[in-house]
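CORE FACILITY INTAKE
Project code: CF-77B
Contact: R.S. (postdoc)
Sample description: multi-component assembly, two entities in total
Requested service: structural model of the whole complex
Turnaround: standard
Below are the sequence entries exactly as provided by the requester. Do not edit them.
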Amino acid sequence: MGKDGSNVVSNKLQISIYRYRPEHDEAPWMQDLEYETGGRDLMVLDVLEGLREQDPSLSYRRSCREGVCGSDGMNISGRNNLACITPLSQAAPDGRLVLRPLPGLPVVRDLVVDMTMFYRQYESIAPYLINDSPPPAIERLQSPEQRAQLDGLYECILCACCSTSCPSFWWNPERFVGPAGLLQAWRFLADSRDTADEERLAGLEDAFSLFRCHGIQNCVASCPKKLNPTRAIGEIRNQLIKRAV
Amino acid sequence: MGNGAVRAARVASASSFGRTGVQDWLVQRLSAVVLLAYTLFLVIFFLRHPQLSYMEWRELFATSAMRLFSVLALLALASHAWIGLWAVTTDYLTTRLLGSRATLLRLLAQCAVLLLIFGYLGVGTLAIFR
């Protein structure tokens, strides 16, 4: 911290950024760039926007620029995070910033990855309420305690920072649901208005869908919303064990 | 949505020789506890017998309880190793990583692991009851 309490950031930022433009590049390569920060503790997204003014071919996803939409998940100096809420003081304390796409997913272009496998796994857990009983005249009500069961689960913005930091998801994205999908699986299992617990659990009892989680907690470390997929996976596992023995 | 349709959108159905992940998980924990108990028992035995002679060692394994415990530990080791190495082969020997030859490689690796495990089981059981 500087004398005035602000974060000291070096004026000249050394950036190494992953580039892949399929129409130009035979293989991905790392581009070295310099960026003048003026000593300000910018967010990584601000830097990207500045770089794109100089080189409009630079591609990345972004939308809300305030950590709500989950578009700009990327690997920032070795850690998955959202570019829009990661300050340089955290991402490049030594003045060196390394930007790569989220690991494990196919790269479409530069920092843009193909999220198909991620969404397919999300879809597979049926991320919506299932309730066979006839709907009441008003909403299906919940007590404040029942609603509180969803805290720490519903906040997920599907940025994929967790699933793409998980080696089990890297090795088996077709079979392992991944931390993001499993957090949502628990969100609906924990919901008092959902009646499909048995079907939901039956879909997760095989050796891959959930049990490829070995509890290394990369997901917890990388979640920009400070959620805990490992705990959710543990809750589902307890339910599966109760059901099996 | 009707019953049984949840997870119908699954990309690949997964089987592990008819076991479920829950069973694998439970067996892996249970066998670990058995192996821990057996290891601790042996460590304490060695500490108590710093000048261990062949006769003392023979005597230990002459009791039915020790033989049973050893067979149990062998079985625990076999199942623990199989579940663990099966997971390793299905993580790293995949079509994603190795292309179309992965299935054959995985099968060969799993057969080698199984043969080795059965070998250890056989030799171990013979050694215990000889």
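Facility notes:
- The first helix of chain A runs from residue 44 to 54.
- DSSP finds nine helices and seven strands in chain A.
Invoice: internal transfer
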